[in-house]
Amino acid sequence: MNLADAELIEDPDDDRMHVFTGLRDQQLRQLREAPGGDMAGVFIAEGDVVIGRALAAGHRLQSVIVEHQRDRPLEFDPGAAPVYRMGEAVVQRIASHRRYRGAMACFERPSTASVAAVLDGVDTVLVTEGVNNPTNMGVIIRTAAALGVGALLVDPSSCDPLARRTNRVSMGAVFTVPHGRLDPLPDGLGVLEAAGFTTVAMTLADDSTSLASFDRALAPRVALLLGAEEPGLTPATQARAHHRLTIPMHHGVDSLNVATAAAIAMWHVTQGSTG
Description:
By secondary structure, the protein is an alpha/beta fold. The protein folds into 2 domains: 3-108, CATH 3.30.1330.30; 115-270, SPOUT methyltransferase, trefoil knot domain (Alpha/beta knot), CATH 3.40.1280. 29% of the residues lie in helices and 20% in strands. It contains 10 helices and 12 strands. The chain has helices at 18-21, 25-33, 48-56, 88-95, 115-119, 134-147, 164-169, 190-194, 235-240, 258-270; strands at 7-9, 42-46, 61-67, 83-86, 103-108, 124-129, 151-154, 179-181, 198-202, 209-210, 222-227, 243-246. Helix 6 (134-147) links the parallel strand 6 (124-129) and strand 7. The radius of gyration is 21 Å and the shape is elongated. The protein starts with 6 loop residues before the first strand and ends in a 5-residue tail after the last helix. The mean pLDDT is 89.
């Protein structure tokens, strides 16, 4: 479409901009979940590539916004969804001091998949506990997709896999990795145990063994457990896991960024895996 033909919106309080001017996902959740809330479930995708990948995955587009000065065409087909150009006041409300040359889109949020559906046909799953940094989550998801991890399950204290920053950092990989939510850990691991998964906790605990010692051939289905950046997995979750593994480090380095540790662990457990 010709963006010059898109409607220009100058008022940041325009109802059609409401979902974009409250971009913090916590705010969106509060608005949706508040008694009498007037917002249906949505998620925000940022950037032409991410929006295109959301569309390719079958997500339903509600609306798109671009900065009024953008002159290059959209790299995706919005179909019948409205496209709006943001006037300067709207840009300032949404992007603050920075210029915004990309596109941002509002999608209908799909219903949360059941754990059984997420695990169907999967032999390697990533489980997070308390991973609430959306940038780390995005990197983890992109790596999981690249290495062939079959699914992602997050506990209630982990951030939303569809959060705006998460899906942007993942470059839309979140739309290709099945994901869902577990009940709080460690009890939430019960459904994985019942499905025949060997649970592997990544930890710095004294009783852990080297990641290199883990023989994937002895574990047809593996659930790799990762905790938040500083606290890591809770002691109760570590105690529940079948294996407690660590990444040996040198030169006095005592820990790794959770996304880095996840990448190393995922690479190891996916060797010889088919899903």
